[in-house]
Amino acid sequence: MKFTAAATLALATTAIAAPSKTTSEQPSKRQAGCSSAVSLDAKTNVFKKYKLHANNFYRKEIEELAIPNLSDPSLEDAARAVSDTGSFVWLDTIENIAKLEPAIADVPCDEILGVVVYDLPGRDCAAKASNGELKVGELAKYKSQFIDKIASILKAHPNTAFALVIEPDSLPNLVTNSDVQACKNSASGYRDGVAYALKTLNLPNVVQYLDAGHGGWLGWDANLKPGAQELAKAYKAAGSPKQFRGIATNVAGWNAWDLSPGEFSTASDAKYNSCQNEKIYVTTFGAALKSAGMPNHAIVDTGRNGVTGNRQEWGNWCNVDGAGFGVRPTADTGLELADAFVWVKPGGESDGTSDTSAVRYDSFCGKDDAFKPSPEAGQWHQEYFEMLLRNANPSF
Ligand code: BGC
């Protein structure tokens, strides 16, 4: 699936439009961006001031791929409501940087565009489904052709606000999967690459969140301190960037915010993990981050966590069957450390293929609790989207 930038925004009207209505009768069009440069204060929760933008890339997926193919036409209104929900744009390849300019074009002054930066060399080192285009060792290319390019686009749009999620899963993998050979090979490139991204994207119109896995990952007692130290090292190596706000948790994840007792609290190893929901994780890991000397506010992905009880094991991550859209983006989280609930993973895009013969087939996508068949990671997954809609909690 590919979208060209031109096709995405081919909305312009021309001079031949019938001049029947006066300008004042036309529907009001909100101007993109602000009238002057945006300066975000990362000491504050910017989501209190800016609403997460419902980006036109996801809108187009829903309008062009989902709605015309609905197996149940009565879902159309709900699908449109999803397209009006704020979510993040993923820059997951150098080519997909082309998604950015069109996505910026319709962001009003009181909204913020969420962008995921995701293309480290040797990406997804402990799994296969999201292995990326850059090989271990291609760090120079990552810097000059990916991060620098993104930075120049963000600089060219000083009147627009951006929230960045930096490199999902990367540093958490270094904490818990250091015995995996691919993660060993990737480690120095991840550390250097993440620090470079934070330093280079430290722009006044940007607020940064570094991925911190989730409660079932770095929330284990033994992982809290090493996890916080790993993230703090990247933050400090980047020169403690002013626009850095904290962490993103539960990205593309399934954990409930405040379910108590937590979903896996009866598991035999539950005693080794006090972070049984994301609220406890944000609080507990946040304290560890503070001790490690870095900003510790969080945004939490609630895009697909509307239904709990679907996973056979906490670590299962691929296209979990029975999932539903979760709480809509909001800055009302009830916890000072949690800036906002956001939708980072665009619900309806696959986590990985279930085709066992594919190069990027990962056995997690073949587990009993994974939806099958499923297409390659990032590809539109119509049946899964409809399931998320039907199971949405709150409903649409
Ligand atoms: C994929 C990316 C995709 C992202 C959002 C990841 O699992 O590897 O290609 O952009 O999900 O759907």
TrEMBL record:
<feature type="binding site">
    <location>
        <position position="345"/>
    </location>
    <ligand>
        <name>substrate</name>
    </ligand>
</feature>
<feature type="signal peptide">
    <location>
        <begin position="1"/>
        <end position="17"/>
    </location>
</feature>
<comment type="similarity">
    <text>Belongs to the glycosyl hydrolase family 6.</text>
</comment>
<dbReference type="InterPro" id="IPR036434">
    <property type="entry name" value="Beta_cellobiohydrolase_sf"/>
</dbReference>
<feature type="active site" description="Proton donor">
    <location>
        <position position="169"/>
    </location>
</feature>
<feature type="binding site">
    <location>
        <position position="349"/>
    </location>
    <ligand>
        <name>substrate</name>
    </ligand>
</feature>
<dbReference type="GO" id="GO:0004553">
    <property type="term" value="F:hydrolase activity, hydrolyzing O-glycosyl compounds"/>
</dbReference>
<keyword id="KW-0732">Signal</keyword>
<keyword id="KW-0136">Cellulose degradation</keyword>
<keyword id="KW-0378">Hydrolase</keyword>
<feature type="binding site">
    <location>
        <position position="90"/>
    </location>
    <ligand>
        <name>substrate</name>
    </ligand>
</feature>
<keyword id="KW-0326">Glycosidase</keyword>
<protein>
    <recommendedName>
        <fullName>Glucanase</fullName>
        <ecNumber>3.2.1.-</ecNumber>
    </recommendedName>
</protein>
<feature type="binding site">
    <location>
        <position position="217"/>
    </location>
    <ligand>
        <name>substrate</name>
    </ligand>
</feature>
<dbReference type="InterPro" id="IPR016288">
    <property type="entry name" value="Beta_cellobiohydrolase"/>
</dbReference>
<feature type="active site">
    <location>
        <position position="124"/>
    </location>
</feature>
<feature type="active site" description="Proton acceptor">
    <location>
        <position position="351"/>
    </location>
</feature>
<keyword id="KW-0119">Carbohydrate metabolism</keyword>
<keyword id="KW-0624">Polysaccharide degradation</keyword>
<feature type="binding site">
    <location>
        <position position="317"/>
    </location>
    <ligand>
        <name>substrate</name>
    </ligand>
</feature>
<comment type="function">
    <text>Exoglucanase that plays an important function in biomass degradation by catalyzing the hydrolysis of the non-reducing end beta-1,4-glucosidic linkages in cellulose and cellotetraose to release cellobiose. Hydrolyzes crystalline and amorphous cellulose but is inactive on hydroxyethyl cellulose, mannan, galactomannan, xyloglucan, arabinoxylan, arabinan, xylan, and pectin.</text>
</comment>
<feature type="binding site">
    <location>
        <position position="214"/>
    </location>
    <ligand>
        <name>substrate</name>
    </ligand>
</feature>
<dbReference type="GO" id="GO:0030245">
    <property type="term" value="P:cellulose catabolic process"/>
</dbReference>
<dbReference type="Pfam" id="PF01341">
    <property type="entry name" value="Glyco_hydro_6"/>
</dbReference>
<dbReference type="InterPro" id="IPR001524">
    <property type="entry name" value="Glyco_hydro_6_CS"/>
</dbReference>
<feature type="binding site">
    <location>
        <position position="92"/>
    </location>
    <ligand>
        <name>substrate</name>
    </ligand>
</feature>
